[in-house]
Design a protein that fits this description.
The chain is of the alpha+beta class. The chain has one domain: Pnp Oxidase, Chain A. Helices cover 23% and strands 33% of the residues. It has 4 helices and 8 strands; from the N terminus they run βαββββαββαβα.
Length: 183
């Protein structure tokens, strides 16, 4: 049975911080453009308040989330229990992309582990918190974090990362603007 919560209380916050993966979903305004879902992991998620969260956005091959947030701000974060009692938690809200050119970037940088692949942070004002049973979510065993992105970003260095982002992260697959060079 689904249950809506007033906010992220201490019990829910404790459960969220134990999860090793979360999923981010966004959609453009146009019904002809592509909806996006992205898995995220590591130490990339923070609860900042009862209705405020953020995550560290790493360099990737696409920029759908950033493009959709710039266009309309709609976002949902989903957590699933892959061990222990079944549970799914969704945080719906309005997201903002915080890039290095944003005056708040240093503040967010201080909340997360240093990572050469960080291209931005996503700050979310949560307007709906809900959980559901998760009875059909299978069990999975966590084997450990991957270091592939960390090694890739460290090997590229800042200049090559900037060039990569300039060629692959400027627009969404539907042509919506995502990241502006040096932002």
């Amino acid at each position: 049975m689904s249950k809506q919560h007033e906010n992220i209380d201490s019990e829910l916050a404790a459960w969220i911080t134990q999860q090793r993966i979360f999923f981010v979903a966004t959609a453009p305004i146009s019904p002809n453009d592509h909806i996006n879902t992205s898995p995220k992991g590591g130490e990339a998620f923070r609860i900042l308040g009862p209705l405020e969260v953020a995550y560290q956005d790493y360099t990737g091959s696409g920029a759908e989330t950033a493009a959709h947030l710039r266009e309309n701000g709609r976002i949902v974060i989903m957590f699933c229990a892959f061990d222990g009692p079944p549970k799914i938690v969704r945080l719906h809200g309005h997201g903002t992309v915080i890039t290095p050119s944003d005056e708040r970037f240093a503040e967010f940088l201080s909340l997360f582990p240093a990572n050469a692949g960080t291209r931005a942070f996503v700050h979310i004002t949560v307007n709906r918190v809900s959980d559901s049973c998760g009875y059909s979510v299978p069990f999975f065993d966590f084997q450990g974090p991957r270091d592939t992105l960390d090694r890739w970003a460290a090997n590229k260095g800042p200049e090559k990362l900037d060039a990569y982002r300039a060629t692959t992260n400027q627009n969404s697959i539907d042509g919506l603007p995502a990241f502006i060079r040096n932002s």
